[in-house]
Amino acid sequence: MKSTEKVTDTTGTFSADELNEAFAGFQRTVAEVAAGGDWDRYADMFTEDADFVEHALGTMRGREEIRAWAWRTMTAFPGSYMTSFPSLWHVVDAPTSRVICEVDNPMRDPGDQSLITATNITILTYAGDGLWNKEEDVYNPMEFGRAAMRWCEKAREFGNLDEAAEQWMTTTGAFFARPRSKD
């Protein structure tokens, strides 16, 4: 039985210093994309045949599928309410050309200056020339859903719940609602 997973031989091609430098560039671009909303720039950091594994939503194959996913996901609630995606820590694994990091996903202020966020682990595989040939995001969808629901509840309390967030709250968000007390 043959595996259908793409195998890219980048093993040991890059030094730890090269991987750290490439990751610093990745983080700078992600910060600029988060601030400006140009998700094309995000997709352009991947090779044309890259894979993006998103455990709750599936695997995107190729830069153009990554681009479409990024625009669809990051321009709609809750992705569009996340203000930045900083790495809290990272390690490089030069023998596999990978960078592993924990990414924070803070949401904008719901109205009371509280910080609502969730984190994920990201595994990036470097292809060279500033490009990545694989990203895998590992996270708990319940944690993200609960964070988005907390944001909606607070935003509603402070009169900041807009139509997009309210629609999410009453549809998808209902799954993440905390049970009401019977008092």
TrEMBL record:
Signal peptide per UniProt: none
A Pfam entry, by short name: SnoaL_2
Domain SnoaL-like span(s) in chain numbering: 32-83
Domain of life (superkingdom): Bacteria
Name assigned to this protein: Polyketide cyclase
Species for this entry: Gordonia alkanivorans CGMCC 6845
